[in-house]
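Thread: quick sanity check before group meeting

JM: Hey all, I'm pulling together slides for Thursday and realized we never actually wrote out the predicted structure for the chain we discussed last week. Dropping the sequence here so it's in one place. If anyone has concerns about the input, flag it before I start.
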Amino acid sequence: MAIARSLPVALPPAIPVREILPWAIFSGLLLLLGLYFVGVEEGALAIFNGAYVHEFLHDGRHLLGFPCH
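JM (edit): ok, ran it. Output follows.
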């Protein structure tokens, strides 16, 4: 008769929240900045003068469903 042996189960390493939190906040701020430039950067709330940012992101704005006309 063959003896059944159990193999050790590999568990993923635990990552403390203290190590993830700064990167999560940084990523969230970058995403919010990107969302601002794609969705809001035009008109009265514009940071930059002119329509350069609007025209650069125009196709992405329509792809994401933001109206601009």
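AS: nice. The mean pLDDT is 81. Residues 2 and 37 are 66 Å apart (CA to CA).
JM: adding both to the slides.
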